[in-house]
Amino acid sequence: MDGLVPPPRFGTTTFGAYTPIDPSQELARDRVAAFAATAGAPAGGSRFAFRWRRRGEGHGLYLDGGFGVGKTHLLAAAWHASPLPASMKRYLSFQELVYLLGVLGRDGAREAFAGVKLVCLDEFELDDPGNTLLIATFLREAFARGTSVITTSNTPPEAQGAGRFAAKDFQREIQAIADRFEVVTIDGPDHRAGVGRADWCPPAELAQAAEQVTGVVRAASYGELLRTLERYHPTRYRELLHHVDLLIVERMRPIADQNAALRFVHFIDKLYDLGTAFRASGLAPLNETFDPSYRDGAYLTKHHRCLSRLSELLDEPLAPRTG
Length: 323
Fold this sequence. Notes:
Blueprint: H1 23-38, H2 47-53, E1 60-65, H3 71-81, E2 89-93, H4 94-112, E3 118-122, H5 129-144, E4 148-153, H6 171-179, E5 181-186, H7 203-212, E6 217-221, H8 222-231, H9 237-240, E7 246-252, H10 258-274, E8 277-282, H11 300-315
Parallel strand pairs: 1-4, 1-5, 2-3, 3-4, 6-7, 7-8
Helix pairs in contact: 1-3, 4-5, 5-6, 10-11
């Protein structure tokens, strides 16, 4: 359970550093701040919160919105702003939580989260029956213990699972999850739009980047990267980037397989969260990274979020070499 804290990119994130560009973002910031201030406290606060707290139970806040509207920023700011001690709050991705629940089992998870009063859960996504049942059980027991949960998602709670598995067969579990969350919808454009890079780097720039950066540089071809991601569980992608200051990928091209694409999306999410510098060249345009056969399907928002983050990563300045 050690290390379940906001990643380096969001290591000092605050509500004050969040700049709303849509009225819904200002409302969301204020609602999340109020939630964080009272999570784990005695009954009080909003009428919604009191509905659960009068029974000594926790409650949930669900940040629903498109990519690039600042959901993860607000989630990390909530963790930092919460007056609870670090031992009583956890920050992790949905994928990491599902993995933990599978490893620990129901009794182990109950023990591991017994003293936790706030869980900040990024990128909530029910994409198969197994994790739906795991998460439904975890949340039911967590709320009963008095744990409050803030989560982010690109999908409204009632629509979870749609297009990914036979969600209608699990509607009771999905609805039970939805019923425990207050939904805060965040609108607005992608804050990264127009400020990142529109395409991959020219090959010559990769060598220049390797010479410029301070620290450990790792390089791989497109094929090597995808084969590596297939060998490791997504929860271990953080380990692959441990102590890496710059990752270089050569000759990126469209990813033909949806499963390979989802692994790549998760990897870029980890790389982005960790603040690892990234440069890559490509044999096709950046906006063709995901094949048309699946690009606009059930995981549309994941693909667009990945492209948005890639654009930002490719344009971020590198730490200059010193000494």
